[in-house]
Design a protein that fits this description.
Order of helices and strands: EHEHEEHHH
CATH topology: Collagenase (Catalytic Domain)
CATH superfamily: Metalloproteases ("zincins"), catalytic domain
Strand order of the largest sheet: 1-2-4-3
CATH architecture: 3-Layer(aba) Sandwich
Strand content: 15-25%
């Protein structure tokens, strides 16, 4: 079994607005496309109030943001090679829909991008400096192209 098949995925729709259009099979496909190792994940869709609360409490930023990734191994010194990536990825429906409209993208396209983006964060990628950002954006663009979506940064 390949690493891409070793996925435990929970999808939660605390905010149910996208439950019919952003389905579990789509989410699983997007996650697996961005998965480089076994993983145990929760993807949770929230409204602006919960998104703001999480961003404020965990990042010190008092506003709702599009995606938050909580990687359980972040800050760990040494993990076994076979340790799965464990993370919660939180998507704020209000911000996601607003950004999709502003960027003239479908909600599906933007959600796919944010899930891929969150998955890369869960696996240790970041965009703190220009070099990291360029690397991460390149990987996102490649994965999204494989999934049939346009370059989100074009």
């Amino acid at each position: 079994m390949s690493a891409k098949n070793k996925l435990t995925l929970s999808v939660q729709y605390a905010d149910p607005r996208l439950q019919e259009s952003i389905t579990r099979p789509k989410i699983r496909k997007w996650v697996q496309a961005a998965l480089f190792a076994p993983a145990e994940l929760t993807i949770r869709f929230v409204d602006a109030a919960e998104g703001r609360e999480l961003n404020r409490d965990y990042r010190g930023k008092d506003y709702a943001t599009n995606v938050l990734t909580f990687a359980y191994s972040e800050g760990e010194e040494e993990l076994p090679d076979d340790a799965p990536t464990q993370a919660d990825i939180i998507l704020c429906t209000d911000v996601l829909e607003k950004e999709a409209a502003e960027q003239k993208k479908t909600v599906e396209e933007h959600t796919a991008h944010l899930i891929v983006h969150g998955m890369l964060h869960a696996q240790g990628y970041d965009h703190e400096d220009d070099e990291e950002a360029a690397e991460m954006e390149g990987i996102e663009t490649e994965i999204l192209a494989e999934l049939g979506y346009a370059d989100p940064y074009a």
